[in-house]
Amino acid sequence: MRPVFSSLDRVDIIYTDLEGRSHWLQSDHRSPEAIEAEAELSLLFALIRVLNPPRDFPEDEPEPVLEYRCQHLPPAFLRAAIAGGGAQLVVDDVVPYDDEPPDPEVLADLGFAALAARVLAEQGLVCDLASLQQLERQQPQITREDDEIGYWRAVLSLAAVAGELLRAEAGGRWALHPSTGTLPFNYLLGPESSPIVVNPLGKAIKLLENGLEDSLSDLVTVATRLLHAQ
Predict the structure, then answer these.
(1) Taking a C-beta distance cutoff of 8 angstroms, is the pair 115, 157 a contact?
(2) How far apart are CA 87 and CA 25, in angstroms?
(3) Order of strands, edge to edge, in the sheet holding 13-16?
(4) How far apart are CA 186 and CA 159, in angstroms?
(5) pTM of structure
(6) 205: closest CA among 153, 166, 155?
(7) DSSP β-bridge partners for residue 196
(8) What contacts 181, CB < 8 A, 6 or more positions away?
(9) pLDDT digit string (tens) for 5-31?
């Protein structure tokens, strides 16, 4: 059975309610304890899963209701991600979010930074180019069909470390950007008015597909050179 909490580039279910309103539904069957065990990944998975579908909402039709369904009330950070991404949390019934929904870009920036710190600490590495190169060399080529959780975990983990290298070298932040590819977040460098848009997530996908010929460490090097040349 496909692990439905980790499908980042697709919707689990689309259905029409009794009033004729379309619903796009994402499911997460994990326990609160399982969500907490990988808090950084859980946060980023949820954010991406609720921010990606609206990019494909049909034009010239009423906007679908976006749902995130859990079997149990999830931890507060996941409820914040769901609300920040503009989705309804459903646990039997709709669970209202009583606070102001947080900015999803702020959540993503914090989540990617925390994930990078966790990955590097688990491997006994520091945040430098050599560490990213080591992670790339150690990364087996896996596919979504064989191991969907492992595939997306690797994509987000490698991209997170690349993002922190960019931050250390040149500042910047994770952000939503219309030029993005499969996933909705890019890393922006330089001035807000005309940033350099870097896509570590897309490059990590290519690395898993093609190997070291699509290296994130090369992406980091080129992006920082471009910024310093401005």
Answers:
(1) yes
(2) 9
(3) 13-16, 22-28, 65-70, 88-91, 93-95
(4) 10
(5) 0.93
(6) 155
(7) 189
(8) 199, 201, 202, 205
(9) 778 988 999 999 999 999 999 999 999
